[in-house]
Amino acid sequence: MRKRKEKHEIRLWAVGFWLIVWQLVSMWLDSDILLVSPVRVVCRLGILAVTAAFWRSVIFTLTRIALGFFLAALAGSVLAGLSSRFRRVYELLSPVMLAVKSIPVASFIILALIWFSSRNLSILISFLMVLPVIYTSVLGGIRSVDRQLLEMAQVFRISGLRVARYIYLPQVMPFFYSACSVSLGLSWKAGAAAEVIGIPRGSIGEQLQQAKVYLDTPDLFAWTIVIVALSLCFEKLVLTLVRKGAAWCCGQKGLK
Predict the structure, then answer these.
(1) CA-to-CA distance for 195 and 185, rounded, in angstroms?
(2) Which residue among 35, 107, 180, 196 is the one 20 to 30 A from 140 at the CA level?
(3) Distance CA 228, CA 209 (A)
(4) C-alpha to C-alpha distances, 50 to 38, 39, 56, 225, nearest whole angstrom
(5) Cα angle 6, 7, 8; round to 5
(6) Looking at the whole model, is its pTM more than 0.85?
(7) pLDDT tens-digit readout, 105-163
């Protein structure tokens, strides 16, 4: 665990190094359109952050991508449970999950724009991108449960709720946690791409599209940093909730 923690830790000196490189390249190019300096981006971000329109855009995008993720996590878990219990359900869902994983995000976005309004497009796209990841991982976790433990529970006539809590959940939660850690970033990438293409009014995607049209590179970088920051904070919050939930449900110390 210690080696894993060190592997994923971001060092401040490395961040500082690349910021210096960014600054030097920006000075060398001497063009805010090609590459704006990090100092200019931070200043622009500070100006945006004190406006009401900025926070409306942040809330608009955050709520929709978060809703898409949580709906996909719920639906993926339920469908995985049904697939593990009923063979026909698994056979029915297999081609759908394969298609969702294989079709490019842009195709989903364009097709969805034909059918629906762009206002809630990021909910649908985030949902579609996260669903197969959660479904596949949870289904794998359910299938990895020790059959001898299930037979023992059946012999001692342990209730279904206790079997689910003390046998299935401890086995499935690591798979669910891993799926969440992978799909959280994916949901933000797909959701932001959907907003950039669909341009729903009052979204971060609209701000990015306007920055591109007017060649406003400081705004483009500033909004990109906002998306990265929101994605990281949302990821840490969700993964913390998953660990706490695992500890409460399973009566253990939780996932590390």
Answers:
(1) 16
(2) 107
(3) 17
(4) 19, 18, 11, 16
(5) 95
(6) yes
(7) 889 899 888 888 888 999 999 999 999 999 999 999 888 877 777 667 666 677 667 77
